[in-house]
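Slide 14.
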Amino acid sequence: MKRLLIAALALALAACTGGNLAFTGPAAVAGAAEAASLPAPGAVADETTVDEQALLRLELAYKAVRTAVEAAVDVGVISGPVAARIAVADNKAFHWLSLARSAYDTGNAASYRNALTQAEAAIGAIWGDR
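Slide 15: predicted structure.
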């Protein structure tokens, strides 16, 4: 996410200068060195796509698990203390998925990765495997 923001800032700077980035002085040399170390735009776009796909997959997994659990509760296979444990895990999974979506939308990579990890664990806990 940081890389995407840096790339966007560099593009905005280039647009403001009419594409002429011929600055002079030590700041220009440092800026040129930093620009040379930026990843290619395609690599940034690929990483962003992978990040979004991870979230979408977890959201789909959550919906599938929740649908299966609701069906099992409806037919009476799950009830009592097991249903209560599943409800707690379901609430945690929903919470962490919401945080992951918010972190993705704001570009907060550290919070995003943490929320994805926690959401995955919470979805697993619905089935009782974690």
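Speaker note: Residues 4-24, 42-46 have pLDDT under 50 and may be disordered.
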